[in-house]
Amino acid sequence: MYRIVEKRKLFLLTGFFFFFFFSGLNISPRELALLCQKVENHVVGAPCGVMDQMTSACGEANKLLAMVCQPAEVLGLVDIPNHIKFWGIDSGIRHSVGGADYGSVRVGAFMGLKTIKSIASGLLSQSSANNGVTSDDLEEDAARLLGSEASLQYLCNLSPHRYEALYVKQLHEIVAGERFLEKYQDHDDTVTVIDKKRNYGLRAATRHPIYENFRAKAFKALLTSSSSEDQFSAIGELMYQCHYSYSACGLGSDGTDRLVQLVQEIQHCSGSKSGEGTLYGAKITGGGSGGTVCVVGRNCLRSSEQILQIQKKYKGATEYLPLIFEGSSPGAGMFGHLRIRRRRQPPQEL
Length: 350
Hints:
- With 350 residues, this protein is an alpha+beta fold.
- The protein has a domain at 1-79.
- It has helices at 7-23, 29-44, 51-58, 100-131, 137-150, 160-167, 177-184, 203-223, 229-248, 254-268, 301-318, 332-335; strands spanning 63-68, 73-79, 84-90, 174-176, 199-201, 279-284, 292-298, 324-326.
- Strands 6-7-3-8 form a 4-stranded antiparallel beta sheet. A two-stranded antiparallel sheet has the order 1-2.
- The chain is globular and about 95 Å long.
């Protein structure tokens, strides 16, 4: 899904880039991004993922980077069609992936992963005990599927229909850290620690990566489909779903919710039904809890005017004039570097 990159990650990546360049070391953009993530995780103390770093290092102008965070595999680049445009609108609320909200959601997701693996292992053992040695091909296929889920490494590799069919009803909405540790000992995440005295949102944090993976694949497929009203509506709906899924995890904010609501008001007002250009969707970006909202719409003057209307309405409600971002630029790997030389003054004649 569309990303707005956090400034701290850009500064960190730029620093690494120049360090390796002047040291004469040859390092790939992907390796550079992974090193930046390690610094954030283990030095800064921010339990972030790697999407922002990969976008900053491997991205190209006017294209979206398709990748799988397992841990950071690039699938390719997807052209942004000429009739589609993205904007970023800054809420004025500073977000941080080092804060308690983001960290607790990550803990909840890893708790959910471990719980699902435990449930799958139990179902697999039960199936083996019931079937003995007389299982047919269908039962063997079901056992293999349960076996793969019992050794699941990433929640996004679990399909939504399997999650709904077998696991969602067995996941608590909230789980106490102490209770989870008593049952499972650990959540198998190297960059976060479970607080025994804290309650964690389990179901929402587990559900988000499972459905977000599906939404991202659908988003990519829609970008390459033919231009139509259905294409715009579906892309926008996926962004709205992502936004509210993030909010369900506890990563929303009043400012970003207000911006998304303003987009919806313009989208559904009577003046936007003429097809002369309107906005179709919006979502919070990055680690959530503030930051920038990404908006999608038709690439035309009318849509840009509507973005300015949102900027004006937001200022009227909050007294903050949000910054608007548009356009695209290459990542560090494609851009390379600029060498700045001091201009020598010509000798003055005596």
